[in-house]
Specification:
Length: 352
């Protein structure tokens, strides 16, 4: 059923990967301008969608991930991190609470990995079931200040004071679409979970209503610019979520969960030895290259993309070496360590 969407996107100028992921629509300059004045739409249907049902679902995910869930109500949502028993990162996910289930949006290629991981912890007495809906639900994100206006033109009322993760089902031209607050980046926006049979229709309506389509190339540029960590780059078992700048996805007040002891100890004793930062580069560097401050190796470059003003990177830098404003070299490039919007940092204490 996604073929109709892919055919439509190709008529709009999309170049697709062999897996059907749009890489570019040839409108990146206009899209970058629209991010500050209007809206763009990105197809995130290659991201994973997991449905969790059963009466124990809130307790189960509460015990499996870093954020708190037991008191959450239908219509709420948040980001949370799956970690190992030693608090090494597996994936950053977004969870939407509905009346009947939890819907987890995983990073691309991580859906089955997380299902297999959670299956290890579901015991016979647990009332929890998992289903992989990745092939049944298309995921679109509207980014930019004009997103609400586009939705309103399509007959969908959007309140301005809704919190991140708020979600509800809306009638999108006779298609039941779950609309959630948040773009997946540190930019204003909305995410739409669309039945695949309605995907082409919804995409057509969004792009007909002045949402400029973007592909994976520009999304990756924005991801690095914003600082969202990704699996196989910043989210690996070499790093924990505090180092990855995911403090906003961690509850320090909840009880025991997988990896909790390590995270609590790192917070209590201020033991974060390296931190993820943005890096503005003036030349060529590759992911995986060491980061130097003078003659001292201080970190590792984990992502590099071409930006509008040179290359942009993400990298882990030793806390003692410094942070924003630190001048570094990586590969053949000189660089400057910068803050990026998506990441949070600092030490929190219980009750703060």
């Amino acid at each position: 059923m996604m073929q109709a969407l892919r055919d439509l996107q190709q008529t709009q100028g999309a170049t697709l990967t062999s897996d059907g992921v749009p890489m570019s629509f040839g409108q990146d300059t206009a899209a970058l301008k629209a991010l500050s004045t209007g809206a763009v739409v990105v197809d995130r249907s290659h991201w994973g969608v997991i449905e969790m049902t059963g009466r124990d679902r809130l307790r189960f995910i509460h015990n499996q991930t870093t954020n708190t869930f037991t008191q959450r109500q239908p219509g709420e949502g948040c980001d949370t991190v799956f970690v190992t028993s030693t608090a090494r990162t597996i994936d950053l996910t977004t969870v939407y609470v509905t009346e009947e289930a939890l819907l987890l949006i995983t990073s691309p290629g991580q859906d089955q990995r997380l299902i297999d991981w959670m299956d290890r912890y579901i015991f016979p007495a647990d009332q929890v079931s998992l289903a992989n809906l990745t092939q049944e639900i298309a995921v679109f994100s509207l980014l930019g200040p004009g997103g609400a206006g586009i939705l309103e033109k399509l007959g969908i009322e959007v309140k301005s004071d809704l919190s991140y993760g708020h979600n509800r089902v809306v009638d999108f031209q006779n298609a039941p679409v779950r609309l959630a607050v948040g773009s997946g980046l540190g930019l204003p926006g909305y995410t739409l979970l669309v039945p695949t049979e309605a995907a082409a229709q919804v995409w057509q309506s969004l792009t007909d209503t002045e949402a400029i389509p973007i592909g994976e190339t520009l999304w990756q540029q924005l991801r690095v610019q914003q600082g969202r960590p990704a699996p196989n780059h910043e989210l690996t078992e070499d790093y924990n979520p505090l180092e990855a700048g995911l403090w906003q996805a961690i509850s320090f007040d909840k009880g025991c969960y997988i990896g909790q002891e390590t995270i609590a100890r790192l917070n209590t004793y201020q033991g974060v030895k390296q931190q993820l930062w943005g890096i503005q580069l003036n030349g060529t560097a590759r992911s995986g290259e060491p980061i130097w401050s003078g003659d001292e190796k201080v970190g590792l470059l984990t992502s590099v993309v071409e930006g509008t003003n040179g290359s942009l990177g993400l990298g882990y830098i030793r806390t003692k070496a410094g942070g924003a404003g630190l001048e570094i070299t990586a590969g053949d490039a000189k660089g400057l360590v910068i803050d990026v919007p998506f990441l949070a940092r600092g030490y929190l204490t219980a009750g703060s």
